[in-house]
Design brief:
Structural class: mainly alpha
CATH topology of one domain: Leucine-rich Repeat Variant
Number of strands: 0
Number of helices: 30
Strand content: under 5%
Helix content: 55-70%
InterPro entries: ARM-like, ARM-type_fold, HEAT_type_2, PP2A_Regulatory_Subunit_A
GO molecular function: protein phosphatase regulator activity
CATH architecture of one domain: Alpha Horseshoe
Pfam families: HEAT_2
Radius of gyration: 30 Å
Order of helices and strands: HHHHHHHHHHHHHHHHHHHHHHHHHHHHHH
Shape: globular
Keywords: Repeat
Protein name: HEAT repeat-containing protein
């Protein structure tokens, strides 16, 4: 299969005697990298591990200054990983066999092949580590995605945990402790740590029973092999033992408590981007934990592996809650926005229950302060999250969310805050009962229509220059861009309310239709005519529709 590698080398670096002016351009190299899956499938898993991996590693080192190539290569390492495992051209039965290869193997031949594939995936992880520390954000994101993608090739939790503790957790530790003077590696570590948290050791000094059992089986398998086979694999075994000794270094072998402590340091790091990325990723601890726990319970894994994840991850919300509350009082607005967004996500992940240590009631008092925040970024986060909060906690709408919704509907940031709040009204109407919609949301619709619909005289005043930014008491701009969102929200609110309340909304719409001359108002109103009829009780009769269809069919036949 060397001809396939020669073809790829010619596309990426050119022939040795090719003049510099005729070397492959950057766009040609990017196009060639997108075909790595074809090359890996044609070469097969063995040649991909032996020939293609070293070539791509050296090629990556030679293109350290080309961000576009590195970004594509960081994503294409996933295709190379599929080629290493051998699932690109395999049928369904062969694909299942290849994927189960990385699980607990009994036969010595399968164990040797599984070890070779695992080492190759570890080499791919090592090639992705410097990409995760690059300055360009797209390269870092693709590298982190590819690093976590490697766990998909392992069929059970034990094999995933062994690979994560051997390769991925040390990479995350090195990114956390990087002393290069730049903070970009810590941004990638902030995304890796929550995803790998469930695979770390539960406590310091506690050795995982599954890993010890796997090591015992490997030692027994090595003793049962022939002498020639043991001598041939002796150098490789020494290299694996040296890697295991490196993992026993305290700065690399991290448990869950140490990961939480290191992540909390990221939340208070001097670099603002590190603090923001860490704050955004706080809910990912719970999401990844629950995803891995559900996968472990659904798969036919051992009971001890399932018990490892039985601990309730709700302590994660309590652990970072004080730091997030401090970040809300920060002077940087995008840090406050990230903290508020994480708190809202935590509230959605932990619905209120008496048995839970973390309750959403700890987040609700912070909403009023976020609504009155001087930065529109923070207020926009609350406006975008009100609908989801109401869907999760409908009983708290009247006491907690409705007081926050009212000032957001009059916010001075038209497109970023007020438009999100207006659209939230329509989404909230779908989850609230009809009586609450009639009491709280229906009175808002005529006010919104009146505030965002200006007369022609007021529209003529819009040509005057703006000498000061708008405030809460400032008049709305003429020809408001929010009129269309209000029209889109009015009809869903009327449909969710009762018949009497729907008449109020429809009367306001009819008044607006008669007083405005703009075509887009009439068009918006006309396109939703069918929805407008539903709250009035004049729903379409299925039998009448069927009779009309039969009449049309008879007319065509005649």
């Amino acid at each position: 299969m060397a001809e396939h590698l020669s073809f790829l080398e010619e596309e990426l670096v050119g022939l040795p005697d090719t003049p510099a002016a005729f070397k492959p351009s950057q766009s040609q190299q990017v196009s060639a990298l997108t075909r790595l899956s074809w090359i890996s499938a044609a070469m097969g898993p063995v040649d991909t591990r032996v020939l293609l991996l070293p070539f791509l590693q050296s090629y990556q080192l030679s293109r350290r200054e080309s961000d576009e190539i590195l970004c594509v290569l960081a994503a294409q390492w996933r295709a190379v990983a599929r080629g290493v495992v051998g699932v690109l051209k395999a049928d369904e039965e062969e694909r299942e066999r290849r994927l189960s290869l990385l699980g607990s193997a009994d036969a010595s031949a399968r164990r040797d092949e599984s070890a070779a594939v695992t080492r190759a995936l570890g080499e791919i992880a090592g090639a992705l580590e410097p990409l995760a520390a690059k300055e360009e954000k797209c390269i870092r994101d693709e590298a982190v995605t590819s690093l976590l993608y490697l766990l998909r090739f392992f069929p059970d939790f034990r094999s995933q945990q062994a690979f994560a503790q051997r390769f991925l957790l040390p990479i995350a530790s090195r990114l956390l402790h990087s002393d290069s003077g730049l903070f970009f590696s810590k941004c990638s570590a902030a995304k890796l740590v929550p995803a790998l948290y469930a695979y770390a050791a539960p406590a310091a000094g506690q050795v995982d029973d599954g890993v010890e059992k796997e090591k015992t089986e490997q030692e027994e398998g090595r003793d049962q092999r022939p002498a020639a086979s043991r001598e041939a694999s002796a150098p490789e075994e020494k290299r694996v033992e040296s890697e295991d000794s490196d993992l026993r270094r305290p700065e690399l072998n991290l448990d869950r408590s140490e990961l939480r402590s290191l992540f909390e340091k990221l939340l208070t790091h001097e670099a603002l981007l590190v603090r923001r990325d860490a704050a955004v990723e706080v809910p990912a601890f719970v999401r990844h934990w629950r995803r891995i726990r559900d996968q472990t319970r659904q798969s036919a894994c051992s009971e001890d592996a399932a018990q490892t994840l039985e601990e309730d991850p709700q302590g994660l919300g309590d652990f970072f809650l004080p730091t997030l509350k401090k970040m809300i009082a920060d002077t940087i607005d995008f840090l406050r926005a990230a903290a508020v967004g994480s708190l809202l996500q935590l509230a959605l992940l932990f619905p209120s229950a008496s048995s839970q240590t973390f309750s959403a009631s700890a987040v609700f008092p912070l909403l009023s302060a976020a609504v009155s925040d001087p930065s529109w970024r923070v207020r926009a986060v609350v406006a975008r999250g009100l609908a989801a909060l109401t869907a999760a906690f409908p009983s708290q709408f009247a006491s907690q969310f409705y007081p926050c919704l009212q000032p957001l509907l009059r916010d001075s940031a038209l497109r970023d805050v007020r438009q999100a709040a207006i659209r939230a009204v329509g989404e909230i109407a779908e989850v609230l009962p009809a009586d609450e919609v009639s009491e709280y949301l229906v009175p808002l619709v005529p006010q919104l229509l009146q505030e965002n619909a200006m007369s022609p005289a007021a529209a003529a005043a819009g040509v005057l220059p703006v000498v000061a930014p708008p405030t809460l008491s400032s008049p709305l701009l003429c020809n408001s861009p929010l009129l269309a969102p209000v029209l889109e929200v009015a009809l869903p609110v009327a449909r969710a309310a009762g018949a009497a309340s729907a008449q109020t909304v429809l009367a306001s719409l009819a008044l607006l239709l008669n007083s405005r001359e703009e075509s887009h108002v009439r068009m918006t109103y006309a396109t939703r005519d069918s929805e407008r009829q539903r709250p009035m009780g004049r729903r379409r009769d299925p039998e009448r529709i069927a009779r009309r269809k039969r009449a049309r069919i008879r007319k065509k036949r005649s």
